[in-house]
Structure formats: structure tokens, C-alpha cells
Write a structure and sequence with these properties.
Elements (H helix, E strand, L loop, with lengths): L15 E3 L4 E3 L2 H10 L1 H4 L7 H10 L3 H10 L5 H12 L4 H16 L2 H14 L3 H15 L6 H17 L3 H15 L2 H13 L7 H4 L4 H17 L5 H6 L6 H21 L2
Antiparallel strand pairs: 1-2
């Protein structure tokens, strides 16, 4: 789950599998942690169901809680049931549960579009880039390039571009960042466009955009990029990329393209 969780009980023999994050939950503490930190992923989905009830009853040894959830599920909201689970498992303090209850109310009152955006951003923050891109693609046709809220639409394009960078889809990432720049017009986006061009030299940033960047700013971005490369611990994929650094321009570009394609294949095999 990315953090150390102190567990007081023996792990389940048959864990609860969470498909969206590709993780298994073995203990009451892990279940509490997942619910508390992934509310935006859970709300509106079929998470509180018979599969969860059986896990709580049979694997966590809490048949009374499971029975209560079954009874209440007919007349209670999903948020209320999630709060009951957290209260019964006693992993979070009362003040933390009060904050969770406020978050439940906020998510429950959000529009369907806002919930989808929260879910996409949550997946993006957890490096589930492929799933995040799918949700951003659902959102963006609804928003439209000329959306009234240009800031929101621009941030969606920006996060889509960053997700695609995580998938090594630099050409598509560049296009997303260009869309984001048309809406946001910020140096932050221009910097991303520049960096994508450095990561994959076959993907050229539009000259008309780069011409808007002062020479001193370009030099600063170049120094930042070079500094990041020099600080990388050269092992695994980083070592492969670093080995291309001193080759001539043609061989470096060709080698980087082959390397990126290899990384893509490795990533997709893990999906």
C-alpha cells in the first residue's frame, strides 16, 4: 500500500483483492487504511457488497459487524456503511473519523462529473496512469476545449499529459500538454512541453511555443533537466537511459526510442 501499517492480528488466508489498485488486503488495519485513503475511488462503486461482508466475517473474524452491514445496507448510504466499518475496526481516532465523515458528505454532494474527476486525480496520484487516462478521456469530451471553466479543463489535460508520461507515451503526452497550454497559458505547462521534448527527442515541441520562452528560462530548464539526470542512481532502467547520453544525436535518439518502446512493453505486460 506504499506505507508501513502496524497490524495487530494475523493476516487473512484469503485476502480481499482490489482490482483498481491491484492490491490485496489481508488485515482489518489494511482495510481501514484503504477505505480512509481511497474514498474517491470507492464512492459510487460496488465496493460495499457481499464479497466485502464475507471477507469481514470469515477472514477478519467479525461476523457481528458483517451481519450488521448486511442488515443496514438496505436502508443506509454507502458513506454511512463505510463509516460504520471504520468505527468498528478502531484503527482511526474519533477526530479522524469526523474528518472522514465530512469528506463523505463532500463526495456524496458532488456532481457525477466532479466525482469522476476526483477518481481520476486519485488514480493519477497513486501512479495508476492507465486507469487515470481512461477517466480523463471520459471527462474531456464533456468538458470541451472551450469549457466555461478553462482552468479545470486545462488541469484535466495537464494531468492526462502527466499520466501519459508515466506510460512513456510521450507523443500523446505532448499533445495533451499543448491542449493544456491553450487553456492555461502557464509557464508550468511550457516547461512540461520542453521536458517531454528532452525525454524523447523524436517528439518535437512546437517552435512557436518554445519561441515564447526567454533564453534565460530555457537555460534554467536545461540545467534542471541535466541536474536530474546527474542525480539519478544509475541502476536498472536509469542505467540504460544514461548509457545513451554520450552517443551522437542520431544514435541517442534512435536508442532512446527503442528503450522507451521496451519500457512500454514491460509496463503493458504488468497491466
Amino acid at each position: 500500500m506504499g506505507q508501513l501499517i502496524l497490524c495487530r492480528e494475523l493476516p487473512a488466508s484469503n485476502p480481499l483483492y482490489i482490482e483498481e489498485l491491484d492490491i490485496n488486503i489481508y488485515t482489518a488495519e489494511e482495510l481501514s487504511f484503504y477505505i480512509f485513503n481511497n474514498l474517491e475511488l470507492i464512492m459510487g462503486e460496488d465496493f460495499v457488497n457481499e464479497k466485502l461482508f464475507r471477507f469481514i466475517s470469515d477472514e477478519l473474524g467479525r461476523p457481528v459487524l458483517a451481519s450488521k452491514l448486511r442488515r443496514w445496507s438496505k436502508n443506509s448510504s454507502q458513506g454511512e456503511l463505510l463509516l460504520v466499518i471504520l468505527q468498528d475496526l478502531h484503527y482511526y481516532r474519533s477526530d479522524e473519523l469526523s474528518g472522514f465523515q465530512e469528506r463523505v458528505a463532500h463526495v456524496a454532494n458532488a456532481s457525477a462529473q466532479e466525482r469522476l474527476r476526483q477518481k481520476a486525480d486519485n488514480l493519477f496520484s497513486k501512479h495508476r496512469y492507465y486507469e487515470a487516462v481512461l477517466l480523463y478521456d471520459r471527462l474531456l469530451p464533456e468538458m470541451g476545449v472551450e469549457a466555461k471553466d478553462r482552468e479545470l479543463s486545462g488541469r484535466l489535460w495537464f494531468n492526462r499529459g502527466s499520466s501519459l508520461c508515466g506510460l512513456f507515451s510521450f507523443e500523446q503526452a505532448m499533445q495533451s500538454y499543448i491542449e493544456a497550454y491553450q487553456l492555461l497559458g502557464s509557464d508550468e505547462v511550457l516547461k512540461k512541453i520542453y521536458m517531454v521534448g528532452r525525454l524523447d527527442e523524436s517528439v518535437k515541441p512546437p517552435e512557436e511555443l518554445m519561441n515564447r520562452v526567454p533564453e534565460l528560462t530555457l537555460q534554467k530548464w536545461k540545467s534542471e533537466y541535466d541536474s536530474i539526470l546527474s542525480q539519478i542512481g544509475y541502476e536498472g532502467s536509469a542505467l540504460e537511459a544514461a548509457s545513451l547520453k554520450d552517443k551522437d544525436k542520431h544514435r541517442r535518439s534512435s536508442g532512446m526510442k527503442e528503450l522507451v518502446l521496451g519500457w512500454k512493453k514491460e509496463y503493458r505486460r504488468g497491466l
